[in-house]
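Input chain follows. Return structure tokens only.
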Amino acid sequence: MSLKKLDNQFLLLLLLGLFACSRPEPEEAGHSRSLDAWPVPEGEEVPKATAKTPKDSTAYEWENGYLLLSWKTLAQVTFEWEFSGELEAEVPVPNFSKTVQALEGQPVQIKGYVIPMGDPDAPFTILSANPYKQCFFCGGAGPETVMDVLLKEGEKRHFDMDETTVFRGRLRLNRDDFDYLNYILEDAEVVD
């Protein structure tokens, strides 16, 4: 099976998940069941960023040249439903905030739960802010809580469901290529 066909099947499952699941109510502060607060220590707020934030190394926490990206930062996006002739369905199209737009192409590091795609030799996997049962596909979270991870050649490709993993790579924002999720981590590697 080709990667494009596998991706299109994945996207259709993703869209079905949107229709089948309802978005949960926001949880009380401090009671998150996800990794959305990582790496911000409990009790501290995520820094508010401007469009020039990545160039200001003091605005974020950095480790070994990689910006420590949180899922709360990635949540700074809204969605509009538009009809896709390619998929013959209504799809959520992201409107990324200026903060998120400023992260395009930046070297980032992010922690999440792995959702394997079935083929253990596939050059990509999915990373989620939430465990599988609470993720975008079956738990009602939004598309901002998942990311395609395109692994470098030679990187680990066999992951267990919900394996908590830290990846680093370059962040790419995706608004209109329906073969991929809205967030893509390119040239990704596992952080030991």
